[in-house]
Amino acid sequence: SDTVRLLSSSQVITSVVNVLKELMENSLDAGALSIDVKLENYGLDRIEVRDNGQGIKAADTPVMAMRHFTSKISSHEDLQHLETYGFRGEALGSICAVAEVAVTTKTVEDDISTQYTLNFKGEIVSQKPSHLGQGTTVSVLKLFKNLPVRRQYYSSTKKCKEELKKVQDLLMAYAIIKPDLRLSLVHNKISLDGFFPKPGADYSSTSSSSPDKTFIFVNNRPVHHKDIMKLLRQHYAAQYPDDAARNRYPTLMLKVNVSPSSVDVNLTPDKTQVLLHDKEAVLTAVEALLVSLYGYRPS
Ligand code: ADP
Ligand code: MG
């Protein structure tokens, strides 16, 4: 029923940042080398992600936002060597249930792009020719229009600013892990480009009092991992006790690459929590790296 659809979708799609993460990952899965993000009213009125990826095949467009449709895996074995962020076919359909969605897309085979307007159930209700080049643009209007309590919650000035900060951090995370990627962010036509760190920059001189500049990636996926985070902080603090005492941390990044079959990314709908089957081995390796970096050995 519509109520069940709304409820389950509201669990998959929880915030502006969450929508943006799903759209960006779809763009990256499509091989995009350029992604332009536009937000209006902190994303509550419009979130738009334009990419230059491979586009969506005409045959797939009627089902693109159907629950569990994915073009990314076709067999159970594919799950063992997954190289895409997405594979569950949940995001696009869920976004349709909590916002107004339009998808414009063009593949190499298509002569021109087509803009599709989708309804609550992810069905195409209208389509028209468009002028965009190869790739896909997804526009998400009036997020949570049918979840007024949640929309209200995200509408406070304080919450809006917090969320915009998270958007910037999310983009920065992808900019770090995909150095070839061209990224831009426009909010209410004000460009927030230029906060991406450059390799070799001295972060310590620019470090803010914000404690959330640590990026952890597992198989290129930005994740939260308490134990790894704790290790990074502990070792940094041993080297720079004054900074740590003031809760000042530079941008720290750690990439963990493990076999896809030894990590479970399905713990939470937004896939930011991971379960490492061989956690102790990973922590030992991280520790060894930190010892070589900072020279501190915990007793
Ligand atoms: P998943 O990413 O798990 O496959 P989604 O619901 O996020 O599921 O997307 C559904 C499908 O829509 C994808 O499998 C893909 O075929 C298509 N799609 C969505 N966004 C894009 C995009 N930016 N470029 C190309 N295809 C896309
Ligand atoms: Mg996806």
Please compute the radius of gyration using only Cα atoms.
20 Å
Low-confidence stretches: 191-209
Bound molecules: adenosine-5'-diphosphate, magnesium ion
Taking the sheet with the most strands, its summary is: 8 strands, mixed
Strand line-up of the largest beta sheet: 5-4-3-6-2-1-7-8
Order of helices and strands: HHEEHEEEEHHEEEEHHEEEH
Distance from first to last alpha carbon = 58 Å
Mean pLDDT: 84
Report on the structure:
Helix content is 32%, strand content 22%. It is α+β, with helices and mostly antiparallel strands. The strands form three sheets. Strands 5-4-3-6-2-1-7-8 form an eight-stranded mixed sheet, with helices on one face. Helix 1 crosses helix 3. The longest helix has 21 residues, at 157-177. The structure holds adenosine-5'-diphosphate and magnesium ion. Adenosine-5'-diphosphate binds next to helix 2 and helix 3. This is PMS1 homolog 1, mismatch repair system component. Belongs to the DNA mismatch repair MutL/HexB family.
Summarize the structure.
The chain has helices at residues 2-12, 16-29, 91-98, 148-155, 157-177, 226-239, 241-245, 279-294, and strands at 34-40, 46-51, 100-106, 113-118, 124-130, 135-141, 182-187, 190-191, 214-218, 221-223, 252-256, 263-264, 275-276. The longest helix has 21 residues, at 157-177.
